[in-house]
Amino acid sequence: MLTFNRLKYVSFVHSAVYVGLLYAAFLGGKPEPATFVLGLAHGLLWIGMSLACLAALRKRVIPMHLAVAVCVLGGFGPFVGTAAFIREERRRRSGSAPPASPLSDPATSGAGLPRH
Fold this sequence. Notes:
Elements: H1 4-27, H2 34-58, H3 64-71, H4 79-94
Helix pairs in contact: 1-2, 1-4, 2-3, 3-4
């Protein structure tokens, strides 16, 4: 089941894997098979997180800006998605309104696509 906290924790793991990859690739002398394993883990985690965040967006578990941070900006580095999860968690704790999203307006969401 997709929950905000599960996605957040996987995002932290993804960032940790990426730190390990950067260290191995640039400071550790590119040791094999560690660089390959970390690179593969990073790629698979990014794909998995992107798909999970798109599903969570559709189920309204996370807002649009968070899904964009993970799916689009996360391709350049998962730290963006992790930071977005932290910001969203703080926003939820404070009780402030979520950022405006086209998905929050029934008149514009989905442009006539059926809802499931």
